[in-house]
Amino acid sequence: MQNLRALAASVFIIGIVVLGAGSATCAALTRPPSGAAAATADAWRWPLSEPHPVTRDFLAPASAYVGGHRGIDLAAEAHKPVLAPHDGVVSFAGRVVDRPVLSIKQSGDVIVTVEPVDAVVVEGERVRAGQVIGIVASGGHCPPGCLHLGVRLHGSYVSPLQYLGNLPRAVLLPAVPHAWAPTRGP
After folding, report:
1. Could you give the CA distance from residue 136 to residue 100 in angstroms, rounded to a whole number?
2. Which of 33, 40, 50, 99 has the fewest other C-beta atoms within 10 Å?
3. Mind listing the UniProt keywords for this protein, alphabetically (predicted)?
4. What is the domain extent for residue 6?
């Protein structure tokens, strides 16, 4: 029992040290950056009218050169309007390989990309959150009836849900059972 308590205390202390040292990194992965120029969940809008069913979640790649899913896919009807998720400037509107792509740059080094989208805006044009920027098209990795939404922060992909306010909170569980934890009866 004494060893179990010592082990639990050690794990707790190590956790505090590790989380304390990496708190800036953890915070960057779980919520938008703070500051006047940073995006907030209040400033962002979904790129499609409701409902917003996510058909494929964000899957962070282990490195910049391996597979992953660098955004989320939303169920979308063809030819439906696509809305600007935030205020910014259109940084790209054109074809990439087999699909039409639209990117918007925002202050704070944030770039959002939607695809496949036939743009009704042009590169260099300033857009406002909620403004129609195009219509759902076809092509790319999304099957018909899909809109891909990706977000890059300082060049690295992050989950768009952290900007849209729908990222579930992480729940940390103990690594070892605690002697003081309640037990369940049969």
Report:
1. 9
2. 50
3. Signal
4. 1-30
Tokens representing 66 are 């391996």
| Surface-to-core class of residue 152, CB atoms within 10 Å of its CB (0-12 exposed, 13-18 middle, 19+ buried) | middle
Q: Is residue 173 part of a domain?
A: no
Which amino acid, residue 152?
R
Tell me the two tokens of residue 76: 């979308």
In a domain, 139, yes or no: yes
Do 93 and 12 reside in the same domain of the chain? no
The amino acid at residue 159 is S
Q: Is residue 64 domain-shared with residue 142, that is, in the same domain?
A: yes
pLDDT lower than 70: segments of the chain: 1-42, 166-171, 177-186
Say how far residue 170 (Cα) sits from the centre of its chain: 15
87 in Cβ contact with 129 (< 8 Å): yes
Tell whether 157 and 112 lie within a shared domain: yes
